[in-house]
């Protein structure tokens, strides 16, 4: 009997704040009304995830957790197969190699025809073991493969023979990330009004390069201050770094913020100083709020930039970062128009739904 509604399951490794996970939540929010969309997290529990990321509370009915052990688990493949049959799943969409392994094999086992796999970065494919595993999985599962950036597509094309390969850039909700009043936003965040505020957002981990940006700020005149949104394992080390450089009064650690549009609206320049990156959503969020953006030339970061106002800088070099920040001159063109035209989540979801229908 033909179903009136289509059931789609997105499978991620875990549900903690991040670009992949935010994108999965957007699929729940912006898919067609005749689609029932669920997110399966292989690791963790619902209670832990919601406690660590309150945004998940609004999606609780659409979230399923398997609390998989760290070691390989055949039971997880079996449990996923049971779930797919119970939900009468039409489309399985995997994100990253772990979900491809478990959910890809389960979908194959259940005879699900429409299988999508999105590759969000290709760092892990530098590992011989990962390349061999992914090659075998792509041959066996045979999903439609989506790269989230042209650079990712190019690398996948070099490594694997796969005819079902396309690129769909990730997107954001451009109706949420909008332009606002800079001074009013600063007052809410308790940021000074009479300075040049450089901002960055992301997990406080070494890969994100916050230490490089802090060093760059220390080389700039005192009018330049830094606002950092996010938390992570490097918090104490970064505090110590600001103190050793004598700029603790110029660096504002704001922690994890729920109102990220407000943060972006408060900035003169958004900066992403990453050592490694995929296709960073924070860069397009900031630009959607009308904030000029600087990124380091890693991964597919360059593909996020508005061609009129964006800045691309060599990675791992605080001196060049400092020079580019000081030399920055605001463009007469807001980057928002570029993001609305190229990276609206509604268009992204629509393209994925069309692809799923082709794969069915």
TrEMBL record:
InterPro entries per UniProt: Glyco_trans_1 (IPR001296), Glyco_trans_4-like_N (IPR028098)
Keywords annotated in UniProt: Transferase
Protein's name in the database: Glycosyl transferase
Record-linked Pfam families: Glyco_transf_4, Glycos_transf_1
Source organism (scientific name): Vibrio inusitatus NBRC 102082
GO biological-process terms attached to the record: carbohydrate derivative metabolic process
Residue ranges constituting the Glycosyl transferase family domain according to the UniProt record: 182-329
Claim: Cell inner membrane is one of the keywords in the record: no
GO molecular function, one term: glycosyltransferase activity
Residue ranges of domain Glycosyltransferase subfamily 4-like N-terminal in the record: 18-175
The keyword Transferase is assigned to this record: yes
